Amino acid sequence: MTSMTAARLATSTGLFEIQNVAIPEPTASEVRLRVAYAGICLTDIHFIRGELAAGMPDAVTLGHEVVGTVDRVGDAVTDWQIGDRALVHPVEESRTSTRVLGVHYDGGWAQYVVAPDQSLVAIGPEISMKTAAIIPDAVSTPWAAITETAQVQPTQSVAVWGIGGLGFHAIKLLRIIGAAPIIAIDPVEAARDRAVAAGADFALDPRHEDFAAEIHRLTDGAGLDVALDFFGSPAIHQQAFDALGRKGRLVLVGVSDTTFSVVSAPNLVRNAKKVLGHYGSERRHVEEIVKLARLGRLDLSESISAVYDLADVHRAVENFIAKVDNPIRILLKA
C-alpha cells in the first residue's frame, strides 16, 4: 500500500476534505506511526473556520492529539522499535520558533503520521489507546498550566472557568495536586454537574448576581489564589481578575481573539496580582501524565465522549461544534 486517507485543510482556500495521499516516509531521525486514534480539539475548529496560526503551510493534515503503533523508523533512530505503542508530543520549541504537529506539519487525522523520534512518548500496555490519544493536549496542557505556570500548591484555592475538554481535566488534576477548594465555573448546568463529579468542591454559574459574594464566602474572604481561564473571553478575564485575592494569579489558557484588558490597575499593583499566559506543554509534562495514568492515579476512561471513523470526520466536527451530548473529547479512529 502506497497511499492513505487523510483529512486535509487547504489554508489558502479554506477547503477541508478527505483526500487520498501518499504514505509519508520518515527521515533518518523520524518515526512513522500507524495511527490508532486522534483527538478533535477546538484549535482544529478554529483552523477549519479560517482562523489560522502563523506559519501554516498552504495545505496540512490536521490533528495534534495522536496515538498509534510504530510502523517504521529512520536510519538514525535507536530508541524505538516497530510495534512500540506511543503518543506524539505535538510541540517542538526552540529559542526562536515553535513547530506544532497538525499546524506546521502534517498531523494525525490520517492513517499514518511521521514525527521526530524525540517527540514520541511510550505509553506501555497499561493505558488504552483511546485515553492515551488525548494526553498530548487535553490533559498535559492543563497539567502544565497548573504545575508550571500557576504553580498551584496544596490547599490553595483555585477556580476553573470553562469546563470543556481542558477545564474538565484541570478539575481532576487539581484534585491530585491537593488544591482546596476547587471551584468550577461554567454557565452550562451539565458542565457544572460533570465538574463536581470529577472532583470540584463547588460549582458556580458566572452569570449569577451573587457570584462575587459566593467566591468571597467559599474562600473565607481571602479571594482566589489562582484563577484558570480555559475559555477565553474579556468577560471572564475581568471576573476572574476581580475574584483574585492578594498575590493571586490569573492564568490565561483559552485563546481569545480580542485585546486583553482589565479594569483597576491599582488593584493589580497594590494586591500584587499576576496575569500569566500559558501555551501547551513540554515533553516532561506529557511523561508525567502518562506516569500518573499508568499507575492508576488518573482515570481518563470517562473523557472519551464519542469515536468516529476518519472517513466520517465532517460529521464528527459538526457534532463537536454543536456540542452534541456536551462532549469532553471526541476521537477519530484511523
UniProtKB/TrEMBL annotation:
Domain annotation Enoyl reductase (ER): ranges: 14-332
Annotated InterPro entries: ADH-like_C (IPR013149), ADH-like_N (IPR013154), ADH_Zn_CS (IPR002328), ER (IPR020843), GroES-like_sf (IPR011032), NAD(P)-bd_dom_sf (IPR036291), Zn_alcohol_dh (IPR050129)
Family the UniProt entry places it in: Belongs to the zinc-containing alcohol dehydrogenase family.
Pfam families in UniProt: ADH_N (PF08240), ADH_zinc_N (PF00107)
Record keywords, A-Z: Metal-binding, Oxidoreductase, Zinc
Protein name: Alcohol dehydrogenase
Organism: Rhodococcus wratislaviensis (Tsukamurella wratislaviensis)
GO MF annotations in UniProt: oxidoreductase activity; zinc ion binding
Cofactor section: Zn(2+)
